[in-house]
Amino acid sequence: MTKKMWGGRFAGAAAASVEQYTQSMSFDRALYREDIAGSKAHAAMLGAAGIIGADEAEVICAGLDQVLAEIEAGTFVWKRELEDVHMNTERRLTEIVGPVGGKLHTARSRNDQVALDFRLHVAARLEVWGAELARLVEVLCTRAEEHAQTLLPGCTHLQPAQPVSLAQHLLAYATMFRRDFERLQDCLKRVRVSPLGAAALAGTTYPISPAQVAQAVGFPATFANSMDAVSDRDFALEALFCGSVVMMHLSRLCEELILWANPNFGYVRLPDAYSTGSSIMPQKKNPDVCELMRGKTGRVYGALTTLLTIMKGLPLTYNRDMQEDKEPFFDADKTVTSSVAIMADMLAALEFVPEAMRRALSRGFLNATELADYLAAKGLPFREAHHAAGAAVTLAESRGRGLEDLSLEDLRAFSPLVEQDVFAVLEFAAAVARRNLPGGTGPVSVAGQIKTLRAWLADIC
Ligand code: ARG
Q: Which active-site residues does the annotation give?
């Protein structure tokens, strides 16, 4: 049996089942890079502060480099009985450099160590999420540029409402994903706070420099309160919330693509690479990627709920319950990263069907608001104009035609204010083109939105 690093006061060994139950090595080994970076920063600080010899700090750092190399080469022997990544790396360090390795843990506890490792990991992953989100926004801008002139029915209540450009529809998502990116940046400010120096919970008597460690690991700030530093996981909660919002946005987009791929809409043809067939129905082309992404959204919400629940009853400070914080995050990270990346690739390859969108425009009286606005512009109070346009819709509907197919006489029956110029107003493209207010669906506005998004992308990349 390997003697526990904390085993000084223990006479008996842990039951095998308990050893298995309590270990976290099987999953927190994923934090080895962060663990070694944090340990090196800590050792260098101990050396600089004279808490250990400068030569000893150098020996420890060189040993840690070797541990890292062994892990990356796959020759490192992970031991479950050493519980976690921290004790696995430290044990191997001591094997390599001898007893001086035991000095690494001076003025440190696994409580501040694991908090630092996890913060470093979450920060690194949020960077990756951000990069993928930026790529997704880029793809959406490109597809929007191609489709500034493509019109489709914009919906409310999933009912045809008003004509919009496909560009405007795509840019709505680009705007959401930009916000998601910015939400991550804001979250990162609170993730990038070094807890090292909080030690077990109360800080330490050694003359340490938490700021030096923070700087060495690339964090701009250090903890404000030692008890908070070792027991706070809201940085991970915020990250999971950010991930949940990303997935919610992706899931809405997936839902639309699933509808649009249905032949009754027919607005998109899914690329073969992003759809699957049926084992029994030869005609099928199923939007499985979108469905899975919609489904996987639940995993990320689940991770957020898991961690909220883990934390809700914990008295200060560290409690072992908190070891359960990592797996939900790892799982959510895998889901968010792959989902954003696949959505970007799929959208780049997606085939839009403008003819189907145009056909859909002529069903659903999407220009009824135009008629009401036309009458209102001629002085009719909007409520009356709305009523007159509604009556015109009823007539057109009874004939199975669109408003634009009614004759001037037909329309004048609802209001004598109607004149020949109404037909230009009822055109879908004209309805879109009139909406050039900032943020509107008009082509000038759309070009402006793309310009702004591209300038933003250039700025953040
Ligand atoms: N594996 C533990 C975790 O992930 C490390 C911290 C353990 N600290 C302790 N005092 N038992 O939370």
A: 157, 278
Q: Is the preceding peptide bond at 309 cis, omega within 30 degrees of 0?
A: no
Among candidate residues 273, 272, 269, the one with its CA nearest the CA of residue 257 = 269
pLDDT at 1 over 60: no
In a 13 Å sphere around the CA of 408, the CA atoms on its Cβ side amount to 8
Domains, in order of start, for the chain? 16-106 (1.10.275.10), 111-155+165-203+220-359 (1.20.200.10), 361-460 (1.10.40.30)
213: DSSP letter:
H
Give the residue whose CA is nearest to atom 12 of ligand 1: 323
Q: Tell me the residue type at 155.
A: C
Which atom of ligand 1 sits closest to the CA of residue 85?
1
The pTM (predicted TM-score) of the whole model is 0.95
Q: Tell the residue nearest (CA) to atom 3 of ligand 1.
A: 323
Ligand 1, atom 2, lies closest to the CA of 323
Distance from the alpha carbon of residue 112 to the mean position of ligand 1, in angstroms: 9
How confident is the model over 369-379, as a mean pLDDT?
A: 96
Tens of pLDDT along 404-441?
Answer: 999 999 999 999 999 999 999 999 999 999 999 999 99
Q: Given this model, what pLDDT does residue 2 score?
A: 63
Mean pLDDT of 315-342: 98
